[in-house]
Specification:
This protein has three helices and three strands. By secondary structure, the protein is an alpha/beta fold. The longest helix is centred in the last third of the chain and has 19 residues.
Length: 116
């Protein structure tokens, strides 16, 4: 994973990492062990996660990112799962959910990445 490489030795020219559905833990086994290395990453990180992601308990992820600090940003896709699929009862389409994810990504890039 790029984040593990970045944590070990900063990669040249990498100015930020974006995770689209970070797999924080196996389904039904909440843990933050897979993210232990993230505290060693010194560049900005974006986490775009579905609010119903079975691979990243929202409260556990929010606590982890708060502990890492201001170099992390969380964009949560309302009612999205790990693939940003939303249930029909949400009144939204998958396309709208993906648009929400991409809008969050674009806003983070514009606010975070310094263009050379």
């Amino acid at each position: 994973m790029t984040s593990q490489a970045q944590a070990a030795v900063p990669l040249p020219s990498v100015v930020g990492l974006a995770f689209l559905g970070f797999p924080l833990h196996p389904i039904g086994k909440p843990s933050s062990e897979r993210a232990a290395h993230l505290s060693a990453v010194s560049i900005p990180m974006l986490f775009v996660q579905g609010a119903r992601d079975a691979l990243a308990d929202p409260e556990l992820l929010a606590t982890l990112l708060e502990r890492i600090g201001p170099r992390t940003t969380l964009v949560q896709v309302r009612e999205g799962d790990h693939s940003f699929h939303v249930p029909a009862r949400s009144g939204r389409t998958d396309r709208q959910a993906l648009g929400e994810a991409l809008d969050g990504f674009a806003a983070w890039v514009q606010a975070t990445v310094v263009y050379l």
